[in-house]
């Protein structure tokens, strides 16, 4: 199964192509330029360099959130447009947090995924990792740093922090005497390679949707549309 994956949920933007659990190509950019300007050139570049066409993809995957409202909108809109352009019925909406957990699935113990949600909160989901296998422990949520610290204070497992909010969690945990470690610098941020791998896992579980059904998952309502109903949490 070939999947084109997009990641636009935070400051960096990336895209990747995978086939049956193997990453064929990926592109990543964190230069401060807008995602609307950088995403499609990355997609075009990796497809060209793999001698693949968009029509060769079996599904289009995208990180649907939580994360930056603008970034998520760009990613989801791009995924829909790409799928519609080649009449691909299959799409995969991937939790940003579940994807980033795959960055450090090799690190046995408790994985705490965190994105900066402002207001002394993080978007968070926790996973256990054992021999490369991830088990979700919490739904995607917005939680205060103090609540998160209290929740796992007595967990005896090694704790690995990942995501653009990991430094916030590290500072609070260290302040409160909770031992933890940051993911390595090259694995700490959101990346489309992990979106692709998570999408393949979801696809094998039959969790493909149509491009029309693909929806963003904000956790908080966008400020520009405060009455918009939230989709069901990603479990």
What does this structure look like?
The structure is a single chain. The chain is of the alpha/beta class and 235 residues long. The protein folds into 2 domains: 2-97 and 189-213, ATPase, nucleotide binding domain (Nucleotidyltransferase, domain 5), CATH 3.30.420.40; 106-182, Nucleotidyltransferase, domain 5 (2-Layer Sandwich). It contains 6 helices and 11 strands. Strands 6, 7, 8, 9, 10 and 11 form a 6-stranded mixed sheet that branches. A 5-stranded mixed sheet has the order 3-2-1-4-5, with helices on both faces. A hairpin with a 2-residue loop joins strand 2 (13-19) and strand 3 (22-29). Helix 1 packs across helix 2 (69-85) and helix 4 packs across helix 5 (166-175). The longest helix has 17 residues, at 69-85. The radius of gyration is 17 Å and the shape is globular. The model is unreliable at 223-235 (pLDDT under 50).
Furnish the topology, listing elements before pairings.
Elements: E1 2-7, E2 13-19, E3 22-29, H1 35-49, E4 59-65, H2 69-85, E5 91-95, H3 96-101, E6 109-116, E7 121-130, E8 133-136, E9 141-144, H4 145-152, E10 159-162, H5 166-175, E11 181-182, H6 192-204
Parallel strand pairs: 1-4, 4-5, 6-10, 10-11
Antiparallel strand pairs: 1-2, 2-3, 6-7, 7-8, 7-9
